[in-house]
TrEMBL record:
Name of the protein described by the UniProt record: Kynureninase
Record text on subunit structure and interactions: Homodimer.
HAMAP family reported in the protein's UniProt record: Kynureninase
Cofactor: pyridoxal 5'-phosphate
Gene from which this protein is expressed: kynU
EC number(s) stated in the UniProt entry for this protein: 3.7.1.3
Species: Gillisia mitskevichiae
Highest taxon listed in the record's lineage: Bacteria
């Protein structure tokens, strides 16, 4: 489709957008009395209007039922976490039995590594990407040290080529092959937080398995953003936070995927607690742990119901709309944003460099823009004008038009504000 950089054209695209009405289902902050243009759904998604109702429901149950709420609330708390599995399974391509919601992202990855990172003899290395999100870097370094290795010996980082902005699949595969039988685990971000690049998770998972390693994915920037088929790709484990594209609220609970081939296996070890115990017998207070026959075996503590409530509210919306419709809109709105950036660049000669892959299958909702000539002043100007983006050193703004609540008109208006901001300097 040929795009136009006009308000009429943007409105036409909004009229054709089947998801347009969902914008009203979210609460927008305001700047100068006007709803912001929100590009940071890749950091913290907006609040769904329904979230408060779900939280209020728990508050009411707590007030009226107190301890009895565990079993007699309308949505009882003792198995509240199970409500997520089937619906989240559709979002990430896992069987319901492979999905559980618990803790937070870095914590879950640590817990999953307790199961899946078992260094032994020659096989002790973890392959990850260079400049991973800092929490992942700290986490992986601390894991190898925990097992008595040094970061230098045990962490292998896949590098981008000189002057390039994203990883080449062939380089990732070559590194896995090179590390070979020394590789215990491959653990990478499925969508890179900085560039927005989507990795070929199926191929990389296969390559990891071919050298005898386990393969896990940090899906912080992937869940609710791109199509995932964790089960079909035979991924061993994955975890994601829910506060980005999944709009569950700040610091909220993380989802985890654990491949069914590890369920109910005697030779699997994990860090355990009573919420992972056979649910029918959980309250019999028996001395010996009997794991749930599914991913819930990895649960440890009783679930934080108040935190989970807004996640459930948001998940219901994902279920109503479905990932295919979100992805269809995402592709169109990201392409339109890319077009607007290119048009403005031409008009004002700004030299933006989009450091996100241009191929649709290699990117999701995020476009990262390297501002060669411009800098922090432009970012600040955008914020003052109600365009919420984020800044990543040294000179990158990230723009993620979440398909649930961003409109084509937002993209057009953003272009006009951007142009003014550049001409002002
Ligand atoms: C790729 C990635 N990993 C880990 C994190 C940290 O997650 P948390 O603070 O929820 O553990 C984030 C975002 O904060 C992220 O983008
Ligand atoms: N959880 C946060 C708390 C405070 C500030 C940012 C975050 C983010 O999520 C950042 C995000 N992971 C990123 O890709 O930059």
């Amino acid at each position: 489709m040929r795009f136009e950089n006009t308000l009429e054209f943007a409105k036409k695209l909004d009229n054709e957008d089947k998801l347009a009405s969902y914008k009203d289902e979210f609460i927008f902050p305001k700047v100068n009395g006007k709803q912001v243009i929100y590009f940071t759904g890749n950091s913290l998604g907006l609040q769904p209007r329904s979230a408060k109702k779900y939280v209020d429901e728990v508050m009411e149950d707590w007030a009226n039922l107190a301890v009895e709420g565990h079993f007699y609330a309308e949505k009882p708390w003792w198995d509240y976490h199970e409500r997520f599995s089937a619906k989240l399974g559709k979002v990430v391509g896992g069987k319901p039995s492979e999905i559980t919601v618990m803790n937070t992202l870095t914590v879950n990855l640590h817990l999953l590594m307790a199961t899946f990172y078992k260094p032994e003899g020659k096989r002790f290395k973890i392959i990850c990407e260079e400049k991973a999100f800092p929490s992942d870097q700290y986490m992986i370094a601390s894991q190898v040290k925990f097992h008595g290795y040094t970061e230098k010996d045990a962490v292998v980082k896949i590098e981008k080529r000189e002057g390039e902005h994203f990883f080449r699949t062939e380089d990732i595969l070559a590194k896995i092959e090179e590390v070979g039988e020394e590789c215990a685990l491959v653990l990478i971000g499925g969508v890179n937080y900085y560039s927005g690049q989507v990795l070929d998770m199926e191929l990389i998972t296969k390559a990891g398995h071919a050298v005898g390693a386990k393969v896990g994915w940090d899906l912080a920037h992937a869940a609710g953003n791109i199509e995932l088929k964790l089960h079909d790709w035979d991924v061993d484990f994955a975890a994601w936070c829910s506060y980005k594209y999944m709009n569950s609220g700040p610091g909220n609970a993380s989802g985890s995927f654990i491949n069914e081939k590890y369920h109910g296996k005697k030779d699997i070890t994990r860090l355990e607690g009573w919420w992972g115990h056979n649910k029918e017998r959980r309250f019999l207070m028996e001395p010996e742990f009997q794991p749930e026959p599914n991913a819930h075996a990895w649960q440890i503590s009783n679930a934080p119901i108040l935190a989970m409530a807004p996640y459930l509210a948001s998940l219901e919306m994902f279920d109503e709309v479905g990932m295919p419709a979100l992805i269809e809109k995402r592709n169109r709105i990201v392409a339109y944003l890319e077009f607007i950036l290119q048009e403005i660049d031409k008009e004002v000669d700004a030299s933006f460099e989009i450091i996100t892959p241009s191929k649709q299958e290699e990117r999701g909702t995020q476009l990262s823009v390297f501002l060669h000539g411009e800098g922090k002043e432009l970012f600040n100007y955008l914020m003052e004008q109600g365009v919420i983006t984020d800044w990543r050193e040294p000179n990158v703004i990230r723009l993620a038009p979440a398909p649930f609540y961003c409109s084509f008109k937002d993209m057009y208006n953003f272009g006009q504000i951007l142009k003014k901001g550049i001409l002002k300097n």
